[in-house]
Amino acid sequence: MISSMRRLTLEEGTKAVKLARKAIEVYLSEGRVIEDRLSGVFEEKRGVFTTLTKHGELRGCIGFPYPVKRLDEAIIESAIAAATEDPRFPPVSLEEMDEITVEVTILTPPEKLRVKPTELPKYIEIGRHGLMVKYGFYSGLLLPQVAVEYNMDAEEFLSQTCLKAGLPPDCWFYAEVYRFEGQIFKEAVPRGDVVEVKLGGAKNCHR
What we know:
Elements (H helix, E strand, L loop, with lengths): L9 H21 L16 E8 L2 E8 L6 H14 L15 E8 L3 E2 L16 E7 L2 E5 L1 H6 L4 H11 L11 E12 L6 E4 L10
Antiparallel strand pairs: 1-2, 1-3, 3-7, 4-7, 5-6, 5-7, 7-8
């Protein structure tokens, strides 16, 4: 399933990031949601997260784990939400956007891992997979870049995803665990050129 999804080109990734920035800035300045629609891959339903960082620190991150919307619509909605609705931070101001770096992560559909709990770490590749944990009304998601930045192994990544869901760190022994992949595009500097982030030595903030 994962390999069957076409990866975005750098040109497409650049369009994605520019769309996210435009959505935020128009919303903050005019109070309206842009209705821009792009062709090609942007017509496909894809999961996506928009991440905002300011001076290297997380400033907002919200998205859609599942491919429930067209990619362009999902980018617009996740970008505005990351800037205005992340409960961990006050809303972003328009003036701040000069100092904020915009990052867009395109997700593959979450894949439920149907293996024994003790076998789970073997099916998680650090630097490739992101994780989502679900148990009852609780759920938590960490993007692939989190494990790389914090030098986690697979077990710690599982535990941190449980904590993100508001559950005990060992909840992966009884909760549903999903893995997914992400393709990351971000501005090199605020309003700068867009680059594709290759996980390994990339600096990304906790999601």
